[in-house]
Write a structure and sequence with these properties.
The protein has about 725 residues and is an alpha+beta fold. The chain binds 2-(butylsulfanyl)adenosine (IVH).
């Protein structure tokens, strides 16, 4: 193939970058690492510098745009610029030389800080009160994510001491590695696709439309910069003049500490190029001990006056640069590609690697995600591959070292491998995943172990080992066969004595009376994890109602304030997005699954929600009423308050509207309280709430258990 012309290459790079921008900013599911992405961008920038005639005022040369549907748009008082970046010491030194010239200073005074690998955010505080949080968006206008940022417990919502009338404080929202791993472990259990790294999970989480869901995933924040700072100019749109209260970033950093706002752990003031470089190297040694993920150092002029002197382009300031630390990578041999079969029959390719040391651990396996990923990267067995830890956590195969490819290698044929292994699989339309058409023995074992697990029907002693012997002995094919097992059968198995056989049979019998959510989780609908099963049980109340549901019972068209139809959909059942809804409908439409359900019914399993509010517990003051909980209550956590409301027959919503009956407000209640006041909704505190709980005589009327409130919730991932 002949080499592309610069123009061809530029066109190709633009298309690729635009595709990756979309994956990164709008879907939070990147296919390449940040490092690879930066390389594409740098290549494009270099080519354009050499061929300025090919420059185009297009979108792909500007930083991406994170704005998404479903959020109010807010204009930043001062634009949110991005940073120019480099991976190279020489380029960094050139930056300092440019700054020296621009500011006519041979030893510019810089601050050096970590570059946090999170999601950029701009917070507005008015007279010390937190009023708004907005994403970068396109730099000029972003999404209002206030309700989600309110869930960040470590962010003070009130600043004390000397505070400006109005200030935009810039920073990053991030997720700790521990929280990322916790959420991915849960998703792995539910066989949901895993998130690539903490940054993407944080990006997806700030864009959830249900703040309750955001609160269930712990986000953190770190602040480092000023957008706008000054008096509110009512008729004069503010122009984002540099901070009047502060002369330099170092002063602002001290103010952040005084206000108890979370800020960077490493903040070094230095003069000139050598000291700045030294600080970057010191930071690299320390950064793994920080609470937040870091992917570089940011070097900025300290003085705001000097910053103004240096100026900015429309995208980057001339007074700052990000020095990015190249991620640790290692080369190793890909011994083989194996296929892993999940509980629901999903087939995941796995790279079996020659063990290699990478960022402190030995890596011998890495997920290859799906068949498309293998062909996109043309990964072949026997290849020498480059592995990297995505977000420094999960190992990934970045690329193949093509010039070391063995001559005899052939492209990996996913479909052929399936045939070779005797796996009868199909690709689910609209999904990247291949699934087995009929259950394999391995899948049967997993399905049975899942059915009996703690998070499902909680059948004591039915672990993977027992599940395996039951399947291998052909006593059980599907979990419904458990209910016709006999003691005579069990005692023939190696693992069983008289007593253990009895115990298992008792546990199986007891499982018939489990709560409905356990059964919904146990039957193994793809994409339905424990939490979704709980939400479904609460909403549908019987398995038959769930089985008979149509798409519109899960999702409905978005309707605007004036009743007009909007683009997009919202959930009818909290936590159920389009993908989950489709998955449930597909599952129940399979005659084999219907038969399975009938066999469970015949075995006597409980098909309805037994956690229904008992008549005696229904509280007339609360039943049927919609509550919104905001702020920190003196003694109850939000979850406890929610449980009490729901147990008394009320419902809890995440947002205040005219339909809200009560706002239960605690300390530092923010915009929801203001909205409630505007709409004239009754506001109660915890004491009044407790009075309602105790006072109102419970009625003997039969009122169904509270339904989960319907919140807009598009499928983001
Ligand atoms: S200063 C005018 N400082 O990285 C730009 N940015 O890739 C001022 N970031 O847009 C930004 N840590 O979202 C600054 N300590 C830090 C940072 C930081 C992370 C983000 C920020 C910026 C992006 C550029």
């Amino acid at each position: 193939m002949k080499n592309p012309t610069p123009s061809e290459r530029i066109t190709r790079l633009r298309t690729e970058i635009a595709r990756h921008d979309k994956l990164y900013y709008n879907k939070a599911t990147p296919e390449i690492t940040d490092y690879e992405y930066d390389l594409l961008r740098n290549e494009l920038a270099d080519l354009i510098a050499r061929h300025p005639e090919l420059a185009q005022a297009g979108t792909t040369e500007t930083p991406g745009d994170d704005r998404t549907e479903g959020f109010a748009k807010v204009r930043h008082l001062s634009p949110m610029l991005s940073l120019d970046n480099t991976y190279n010491e020489d380029e960094f030194r050139n930056f300092v030389t440019r700054v020296e010239k621009l500011t006519a200073n041979s030893q510019p005074h810089f601050v050096v800080e970590p570059k946090i690998d999170g999601v950029a955010v701009s917070l507005t505080y008015e007279n010390g009160k937190f009023v708004r949080a907005v994403t970068r968006g396109n730099g000029t206008e972003g999404d209002d994510i206030t309700r989600n940022v309110e869930t960040i417990v470590s962010l003070p919502k009130t600043l004390t001491g000397e505070v400006p009338e109005k200030i935009e404080i810039r920073g990053e929202i991030y997720m700790t590695n521990a929280e990322f791993l916790r959420i991915n472990a849960e998703r792995e259990k539910a066989e949901l696709p895993l998130y690539a790294n903490p940054r993407n999970l944080a990006a997806g989480t700030v864009k959830l439309l249900d703040p309750r869901e955001t609160a269930a995933r712990k986000l953190e924040i770190v602040l480092y910069g000023i957008g706008f700072n000054g008096p509110v100019m009512r008729n004069n749109p503010p122009r984002g003049e540099p901070a009047s209260m502060f002369g330099a970033l170092s002063q602002f950093h001290s103010a952040l500490l005084r206000w108890k706002l979370p800020t960077v752990e490493f903040f070094r003031e230095v003069d000139g190029s050598d000291a700045a470089w030294q600080a970057i190297c010191d930071l690299d040694k320390l950064r793994r001990t920080f609470a937040y993920p870091t992917d570089g150092a940011v070097v900025k002029l300290d003085s705001f006056a000097a910053q103004s002197h240096a100026g900015s382009t429309s995208k980057f300031p001339h007074w700052a640069i990000a020095f990015k630390f190249a991620p640790e990578q290692a080369e190793t041999r890909l011994r083989a590609i194996t296929l892993q079969i999940g509980r629901t029959g999903a087939i995941t390719p796995v790279a079996e690697l020659e063990p290699v040391e990478l960022a402190g651990t030995t890596v011998s396996r890495a997920t290859l995600h799906n068949a498309d990923e293998i062909s996109r990267k043309d990964i072949r067995e026997g290849d020498l591959v480059v592995v990297e830890k995505a977000g420094e956590i999960i190992p990934q195969v970045v690329r193949v070292v093509l010039d070391k490819r063995p001559a005899e290698s052939t492209a990996f044929d996913f479909a052929a491998r399936l045939t070779e292994l005797g796996l009868d699989a199909e690709r689910v339309p609209g999904e990247a995943v291949w699934r087995l058409k009929k259950p394999s023995r391995e899948q049967q074992i997993r399905a049975l172990a899942h059915f009996g697990s703690k998070q499902c029907l909680d059948i004591e002693n039915l672990g993977p080992a027992i599940a395996e012997s039951l399947i291998n002995a052909d006593f059980v094919k599907t979990p419904s066969d458990l209910y016709s097992l006999t003691k005579e059968q069990l005692v023939t198995l190696e693992k069983f004595g008289d007593k253990s056989a009895d115990n298992l049979l008792v546990a199986i019998e007891a499982s018939k009376n489990g709560e409905l959510w356990r059964l919904i989780h146990a039957i193994g609908i793809p994409n339905v994890g424990m939490q979704t099963a709980k939400d479904l049980a609460r909403h549908f109340k019987t398995l038959d109602a769930l089985a008979g549901a149509t798409y519109s019972d899960f999702r409905r068209k978005l309707v605007g304030k004036k009743g007009q139809e909007l683009k997009g959909e919202e959930s009818v059942v909290s936590g159920v997005g389009g993908v989950v809804a489709e998955s449930i409908l597909t599952w129940f439409s399979d005659p084999a699954h219907r038969e399975f359900v009938e066999r469970l019914r015949a075995a006597g399993l409980n098909f309805s929600d037994t956690t229904e509010t008992s008549d005696a517990a229904v509280n007339e003051a609360i039943a049927g009423k919609t509550f919104v909980i905001t702020g920190t209550l003196p003694t109850l956590s939000r979850d406890e308050a929610r449980d009490k409301i729901e147990a008394a027959g009320g419902r809890v919503s995440g947002s205040v509207s005219k339909k809200t009956d009560f706002v239960l407000a605690g300390e530092e209640a923010g915009s929801k309280l203001t909205k409630a006041q505007e709409l004239g909704v009754t506001i109660i505190d915890e004491a009044e709430f407790r009075k309602m709980l105790n006072d109102a005589k419970t009625s003997s009327k039969s009122v169904g258990k509270a339904e989960v409130t319907h919140l807009a919730q598009p499928e983001l991932f």
